[in-house]
Amino acid sequence: MAKIKPSQGAAYARIMGVGGYRPTRVVPNEVILEKIDSSDEWIRSRSGISTRHWASPEETVSAMSVEAAGKAIADSGIRAEQIGAVIVSTVSHFKQTPAIATEIADKLGTGRPAAFDISAGCAGFGYGLTLAKGMVIDGSAEYALVIGVERLSDLTDFEDRSTAFLFGDGAGAVVVGPAKEPAIGPTVWGSEGDKSETIKQTDSWEAYRNGRPEKFPALTQEGQAVFRWAVFEMAKVAQQALDAAGITADELDVFIPHQANMRIIDSMVKTLKLPEHVTVARDVETTGNTSAASIPLAMERLLATGEAKSGDTALVIGFGAGLVYAATVVTLP
Ligand SMILES: CC(C)(COP(=O)(O)OP(=O)(O)OC[C@H]1O[C@@H](n2cnc3c(N)ncnc32)[C@H](O)[C@@H]1OP(=O)(O)O)[C@@H](O)C(=O)NCCC(=O)NCCS
C-alpha cells in the first residue's frame, strides 16, 4: 500500500478578525404594525425586539457579505489573497447554483480559494466556524473566511403576526487562522430532524413554481415549541460546550447566543447560572433575528462598543431550523 503524506496544518486555530454589515434602513415596530394586529408593547415584551434592519435591492446577499468580510479581513491583518477557503452560510440566497461564495470570493480579491455555501439555519455560523477550524488545522487552508448572511425580509410574510416582527437582514464575517494555543474549543453540534417541521419555509420553490400556493414562500414556525426547545435543550448544549472546553461559567467573559428572542437569552443566562460579570449579547433588540448572521454581528458590536475586548473568552451557541445547533467556546479576536 502506498504511503500517503499526512496533512500539515496549524497546531490550533483562532478567530483573527470580525466584521459586520447592517443595512442602512432601520425598521421600527411601528412599520411592522401596519400589516398585523399587534402592539409595540407586545412585540417588545414577547421578543425584546424594537428595531431591525431591512436590506434595499442594492444590499444583496453578495454586497452585504463583501462589506462584512472586507472589514473582517482588515481586522485580521491579513491580505485577501491569503484566504484559502470562503464558507458562506445562508438560507436566503435565492439562486441554487452557483454558490454565492465564489462570487463573494472573487469580489474580495481572494485569488482561487475553495468556496461554497452551507445551509444550517441559525446554527450556520457555528457550522462554518467548525469547518474553518478543521481546514486550518488540517492545512487545507491557512486562513478561512466564514460569512453568515441573510436577507430574511425576503422570506417574511408581513401579514403573519407570529413571525412578521422577528426577522432582520445583515451579514457578519470572521477570518479563522493559525494559533499557538487553543482559541476555538470543541464544537458541540447536532441535528434533530424529527423536529424539522417546527421551523420551515411554508412551501417549496417547486410548489410555488407550479402555482400552489400563489403567495411567495416564507418562514413559518411553531413559536412555543421552538421557544421551549431553545430554552430547555439549548442551555444543556451550551453547558456541554463549556465542559468540552474545560471552562467554568466563572471563567467566562462573554456569552453570545443566537439572537432569536430576548426571553430565550435571559432564560439561558439563568439556567447556565452565568455570573454578573459575564457580558451577554443582546443585539436582538436592534437587529432582530438575522439567522446565520446573528452571532458574528453581535460579536462585532460587542467588540466595537468595548463591552467585550480582544482575548475575552466567549461562549457562542447557534440553533434553529433543522432543527440544528452548534456551540463552542472561543477567544475573541
Ligand atoms: C414568536 C414568539 C415571540 C411568540 O410568543 P409567545 O409568547 O409564544 O406567543 P404565543 O404564540 O403563545 O401567543 C400568545 C398570545 O399572543 C397572541 N399573539 C401572537 N402573535 C401576536 C402578535 N404579534 N401581537 C399580539 N398578539 C399576538 C396569540 O394569538 C396568543 O393569544 P391567545 O393567548 O389569546 O391565544 C415566541 O414563541 C418565540 O419567540 N418563539 C421562538 C421564536 C424563535 O426564536 N424562532 C427562531 C429560532 S431560530
Automatic annotation (TrEMBL):
- The segments labelled ACP-binding in the record are 259-263
Family matches, as Gene3D superfamilies:
3.40.47.10
The answer to whether the entry has keyword Oxidoreductase is no
Which residues catalyse the reaction? C122, H258, N289
Against CDD domains, the record matches this protein to: KAS_III
Localization per Swiss-Prot or TrEMBL: Cytoplasm
Q: In which pathway does it act?
A: Lipid metabolism; fatty acid biosynthesis
Q: Which domain of life is it from?
A: Bacteria
Q: Where is the Beta-ketoacyl-[acyl-carrier-protein] synthase III C-terminal domain?
A: 242-331
Q: Name one Pfam family in it.
A: ACP_syn_III
Q: Which residues cross the membrane?
A: none
User: Which principal EC class is assigned to this enzyme?
Assistant: transferase
Q: Which UniProt keywords apply?
A: Acyltransferase, Cytoplasm, Fatty acid biosynthesis, Fatty acid metabolism, Lipid biosynthesis, Lipid metabolism, Multifunctional enzyme, Transferase
Where in the numbering of this chain does the Beta-ketoacyl-[acyl-carrier-protein] synthase III N-terminal domain appear?
A: 116-193
Q: How does it assemble?
A: Homodimer.
Family assignment from sequence similarity: Belongs to the thiolase-like superfamily. FabH family.
Q: What is known of its domains?
A: The last Arg residue of the ACP-binding site is essential for the weak association between ACP/AcpP and FabH.
- Fetch the HAMAP family from UniProt: FabH
* Role played: Catalyzes the condensation reaction of fatty acid synthesis by the addition to an acyl acceptor of two carbons from malonyl-ACP. Catalyzes the first condensation reaction which initiates fatty acid synthesis and may therefore play a role in governing the total rate of fatty acid production. Possesses both acetoacetyl-ACP synthase and acetyl transacylase activities. Its substrate specificity determines the biosynthesis of branched-chain and/or straight-chain of fatty acids.
Protein name, as recorded: Beta-ketoacyl-[acyl-carrier-protein] synthase III
